[in-house]
Amino acid sequence: MKARSLLTAGAALCALAGCSSTAPAPTPARPPAAAVPAPSASAGASLDPETLDATAGYLNGLGKLDTNLITDKSKALDQGTATCADIAAGKPAAEQASNVARRYGVDAARAGQILELARTALCLN
């Protein structure tokens, strides 16, 4: 009986071994190297030293006026950029000041200071 069990087990193992494949498991397909976009050369083009200096100077100036103006630096830069757009568009001075007051949530006197800071430190053109 013992020999019969061993013979049956051996036959089962041989049968199972025949079911397995000797070929390696397929690997997941990867996109060719050319399909992966390379970093753009222009991605950092706007980060020239002059722009970095202007940005740092603007944020530093805002912080000197009121540290609450730079709690969100990204927002402060967006507001400054919008202010530069107003200046570049030639909007009337009163409208520029009103827009700055609204953007930053400040009074007219502080808006005038921010406007002048943007004009001298951030708006490069």
Describe the structure.
The protein is mostly helical and 125 residues long. 62% of the residues lie in helices and 0% in strands. The protein has helices at residues 2-19, 49-65, 73-88, 93-104, 108-122. Helix 2 (49-65) runs antiparallel to helix 5, helix 3 packs antiparallel against helix 4 and helix 4 (93-104) crosses helix 5. The radius of gyration is 34 Å and the shape is globular.
Which key phrases capture this entry?
125 residues
Structure summarized in a few sentences:
The protein is mainly alpha-helical. It is 62% helix and 0% strand.
Which residues sit in consecutive blocks of at least 5 with pLDDT less than 50? 1-17, 31-45
Helix content: 55-70%
- Terminal Cα separation, in Å? 98 Å
Q: How would you state the average pLDDT, rounded?
A: 75
How many DSSP helices? 5
Structural class: mainly alpha
SSE ordering: HHHHH
Give the arrangement of secondary structure elements.
Layout: H1 2-19, H2 49-65, H3 73-88, H4 93-104, H5 108-122
Helix pairs in contact: 2-5, 3-4, 3-5, 4-5
